[in-house]
Design goal:
Layout lengths: L21 E3 L5 E3 H10 L18 E2 L1 H19 L8 H13 L3 H12 L3 H9 L2 H15 L4 H14 L10 H6 L2 H13 L2 H15 L6 H7 L1 H11 L5 H17 L1 H9 L2 H8 L5 H14 L3 H9 L3 H8 L5 H17 L3 H9 L2 H9 L6 H17 L7 H7 L4
Organism: Durio zibethinus (Durian)
Catalytic activity: S-ubiquitinyl-[E2 ubiquitin-conjugating enzyme]-L-cysteine + [acceptor protein]-L-lysine = [E2 ubiquitin-conjugating enzyme]-L-cysteine + N(6)-ubiquitinyl-[acceptor protein]-L-lysine
Enzyme class: transferase
Length: 408
């Protein structure tokens, strides 16, 4: 199918290419994330690229529904050529192995053989799905964890099942593999592996969770079942310095869970999430820094989260040092965190740390940015609210007085 046959809404208005990561801005228009970020941050534009309407905020919201529609459309394009309806050359061997999974105690060996077959290419992977392979392997996953998760051999079979399942794409909520894996029992089994599995198996589980998190999946039933242990296992992965992929996936899953449920934030705070993010923040790269600042911001929307941040000795200093040093997104998130903290928890210690660790000086610098934005308004609110308190300190920025119109 030619590019001209692509539905117009699937193309980014800036590049006219099919979008891979669509986001929606304040005007309701969706763009490819990297294109609109370039418009805002490289070219310093504060207007909608399509309508040229001035924007009060540069917030971008992931358009999961549009992304699913694009993926489903693309899947239909490749189905005739890459997913033939005729059996693959490995069909008979696969069917035989499915039968072995049901009756034989040597499930690990059978799962490894199936995995090697699925890895051969799109033909065998499609045949595996059509022939009932997902159902057969999911049954192993559930039975070896929920029914008997204390036996080493059984749990090893469960891990091998995950190693196979993580190779299958979860395109949308209408996808067969997604529907089978997102049921309560398989989700519970993967959560168990996330808590007690090997490093490799935990990576498989969190990879699948990340794919599921990209949809509008409701995590409530799993969180109610697993409770605080779910967050502890996710935070352990965030702390994993040996596998950056697992750490990044865990952060993405946490973002989706915490963004969709305020109740889940309290459990995350109880599990020590604020402490983990604050301690990892100083040495994090740009991508992880932005994700952790977003998570801290979400947690600081709760009184318990703000309290956890200010009680941590590195809380305010860590956030303050990231302002203007990472990216526009990180600075924006940092301002929101400091605004929430200084507005709802303006203790003498908080205000003093903001001054000593450079936050106030950086906030003053942000006032000089051109245009209006929600971030700039928060900066002004912070300075007007606490400017008089900071003026009493020796390290009070001299140009703060001028910005606020204070008398000499």
């Amino acid at each position: 199918m030619e590019k001209a046959d692509c539905p117009p809404d699937f193309r980014c208005p800036i590049s006219m290419e099919v979008m891979k990561d669509p986001v929606t801005i304040l005007t309701g228009v969706s763009y490819e994330r990297k294109n609109v970020e370039k418009w805002f941050h490289k070219y310093n534009k504060t207007t909608c690229p399509a309508t040229m309407q001035p924007l009060q905020s540069l917030d971008m919201t992931p358009n999961h529904t549009l992304k699913r529609l694009i993926l489903a459309w693309q899947d239909k394009l490749v189905t005739p050529s890459s997913s033939p309806s005729h059996p693959s050359i490995k069909h008979e061997e696969m069917v035989s192995l499915f039968s072995t999974l049901e009756s034989s105690p040597f499930k690990v060996t059978s799962l490894r053989k199936l995995r090697s077959i699925v890895q051969l290419g799109d033909d065998t992977r499609s045949d595996f799905i059509r022939s009932g392979g997902v159902e057969a392997v999911v049954r192993v996953l559930v039975n070896q964890t929920v029914v008997d998760n204390s036996d080493f051999v059984s749990f090893q079979a469960c891990e091998e099942a995950l190693g196979l399942l993580h190779l299958l794409p979860l395109i949308s909520e209408e996808d067969k593999t997604f529907q089978l894996l997102s049921k309560p029992e398989p989700m519970k089994s993967m959560a168990i592996v996330l808590q007690r599995g090997s490093a490799e198996a935990r990576l498989y589980a969190i990879t699948i969770f990340r794919q599921i998190a990209k949809t509008d999946f409701d995590w409530n039933f799993l969180l109610q079942d697993q409770g605080i242990d779910m967050f502890k296992s996710l935070l352990e992965l965030v702390y994993d310095e040996l596998c950056s992929k697992a750490s990044s996936c865990a952060l993405e899953v946490l973002i989706e869970i915490l963004a969709s449920s305020k109740k889940s934030r309290l459990k995350a705070i109880e599990a020590g999430a604020v402490c983990v993010f604050v301690e990892l923040l100083p040495d994090s790269n740009k991508s992880k820094c932005e994700k952790m600042l977003l998570l801290i911001k979400l947690l600081c929307e709760c009184a318990e989260g703000r309290m956890a941040l200010v009680e941590h000795g590195l809380g305010i200093p860590a956030v303050s040092k990231k302002l203007l040093h990472v990216s526009n997104s990180a600075t924006k998130l940092g301002v929101k965190i400091l605004w929430l903290t200084s507005t709802f928890h303006p203790t003498e210690r908080v205000l003093e740390e903001m001054l000593i660790y450079g936050a106030v000086k950086k906030l003053v610098a942000l006032i000089h940015l051109e245009g209006r934005s929600s971030t700039k308004e928060k900066v002004l609110n912070i300075l007007k609210l606490h400017g008089n308190s900071w003026r009493r300190h020796p390290c009070f920025p001299s140009d703060l007085k001028y910005c606020l119109g204070c008398p000499e």
